[in-house]
Amino acid sequence: MNVLKQHLQSTIFTLLEREVSQRRIHELTGVDRKTIRRYQAIFESRRAASNSPGEATTGPAEPAVAQTPPPQTPPPPRPPDPGAATVRPFNFARSASEPHREWIEQQVRLKRNAQAIYQDLVDRFGFTASYESVKRFVRALRHVDPEQFDRLEFACGEECQVDYGEGAPTLDPKTGRYRKPRLFIMTLRYSRRSFRRVVWKSSKQVWAQLHEEAFRYFGGSTSYVVLDNLREGVITPDLYEPELNRTYAAMLEHYGAVADPARVRDPNRKGTVENAIQHTQNTALTGRRFESLDAQNEFLTHWEENWAAKRIHGRARRQVEAMFQEEKPHLRPLPANGFRYFTEVVRTVWDDTTVSVDRSHYAARPAAIGSLVCVRIYDTTIEIRDRRTQELLRTHARAAEPGSLELPERERPFNPSRQTSLALASAGDIGPQARALCQHLFDAEGRVGHRGMWGIVALAKKYPPWLVEQACDHALRHHIYRYRQVRAVVERLFQQALERLDRAPQLVLPLTQEHPLIRPAAEYGELFSAGAARSAETFTSNDGETV
């Protein structure tokens, strides 16, 4: 053990007795702070012994005491910032700026700098002191005590933090230029082990997929995920009831995690991942360029496993990988299957109790007619949920072709509605056969037949109504009750009518010069002469001059 010389020992003990911080002692004596900490333990043990009755103490000058090894006890907590103990408070009364204090405080609240305040003092008040005096006065007015933070401690597998940053410049295959992608980082709060991945674009699904990749990388999920209030995760920020993105919330529920959005504009709540982003950018990515995203992701994985995970954490004084191996058994087990991603839309329940998705129709009962429901569209299935409670109402297999109808016969409503009366009245304007066909469609299919009824009515807007009436008569006589078949009959009749017009002979009417409606040419000549004379009179003035 290194032993300091006697005068250095005495100096250190004297400064410690005056409650000078270790940092200040190091600046004054040049002794290493670890050695100062060791002698501080000796000093504390002597102070405790001197306060105990019946025990003799020795002075700091005895050489035998210096040879005594320090007790094997943990060092005391680090003292506060030495500046707080050594800097004297500013004496406002002795400053030449004190007579103008009220005016200077107003200027400081306006965020004006000391130079501008000094210039106005000279111009407006004849200030004769120096600029340094004003600068010290303004600095003292702006002095704010440093904000205090409570360091949060978490158990193994309790929390992780996620955020986006900027990656290193990477060649964009679309533009052929280098630009910075988005850097996603998830950091485990206990061990500080991180997952890093760069992507070109972010979306709700990409954000959730990156979480999945991180959970798979760690071999488990945490109980809480602390995130920023970005749109991919939080739709409406709120301290007490934030509204999460549906896809993101469902993904976290699938992995047994709960989202904990940080307070708006409060990055200190997720300071671990903020530091991880700065560490990655400053140490791993600064000065580098990559030819593809895969190359950058491969480098980040190599750097995490070979350097970042093997580092000794500054505050914990332990290796990150060792803490991760301690935390890994406490992570939540991963589900057997990955999360199924979906697209969510809002639909209105039609009067036939169905909703329309991709031009196909699915039963929505027990949702009420006219209500709004949430529809989750998966690759092979359709889920209809209550919009307010997200309760699952119906599940259907996704239709392979548009125009499909997923509605059991027992659920079809046959009671007429206002749309039924309006469709039948519009069909009656076309003809009795059209109304009869629409009535048959409603009797056979119920309100589901409204679509076919309105389709038949719409045919009269494109084709002559008498052709539509003739097609409906043909459909009734041959028991054809489908809209598409009726439309095919109308198109065929219309084409036949055009062909008959083309084959019909064109009648050539002879020209005639005499008819009761044709006046003689002399009358037209007189009319033109009278008009010309009248026009000439209007352009002649009263004194005979022509205008």
The rounded Rg comes to: 45 Å
Q: Major beta sheet, specifics?
A: 5 strands, mixed
What is the CA-CA span between the terminal residues? 127 Å
Global mean pLDDT = 87
Shape: elongated
Helicity level, as a percent range?
40-55%
- What quaternary form is this? single chain
Q: What name goes with the CATH superfamily of the largest domain? A: Ribonuclease H-like superfamily/Ribonuclease H
Placed side by side, the strands forming the largest sheet appear as 5-4-1-6-9
Write down the CATH topology of the largest domain.
Nucleotidyltransferase, domain 5
Count the helices. How many? 19
CATH class of the largest domain: Alpha Beta
Write a brief structural summary.
The protein has 547 residues and is an alpha+beta fold. The chain folds into 5 domains: 6-86; 98-141; 159-330, Nucleotidyltransferase, domain 5 (2-Layer Sandwich); 343-411, OB fold (Dihydrolipoamide Acetyltransferase, E2P), CATH 2.40.50; 418-502, no CATH class.
Strand-helix topology:
Blueprint lengths: L5 H12 L4 H8 L3 H19 L11 H4 L15 H5 L14 H9 L4 H12 L5 H11 L17 E8 L3 E2 L6 E2 L2 E7 L5 E6 L4 H15 L5 E4 L6 E3 L6 E2 L1 H9 L3 E4 L9 H15 L7 H16 L11 H8 L15 E6 L5 E4 L2 E4 L8 E6 L3 E6 L5 E6 L7 E2 L11 H13 L1 H14 L4 H13 L2 H13 L5 H21 L17 H18 L9
Parallel strand pairs: 1-6, 6-9, 12-16
Antiparallel strand pairs: 1-4, 2-3, 4-5, 7-8, 10-13, 11-12, 13-14, 14-15
Helix pairs in contact: 1-3, 7-8, 9-10, 14-15, 14-16, 15-16, 15-17, 16-18, 17-18
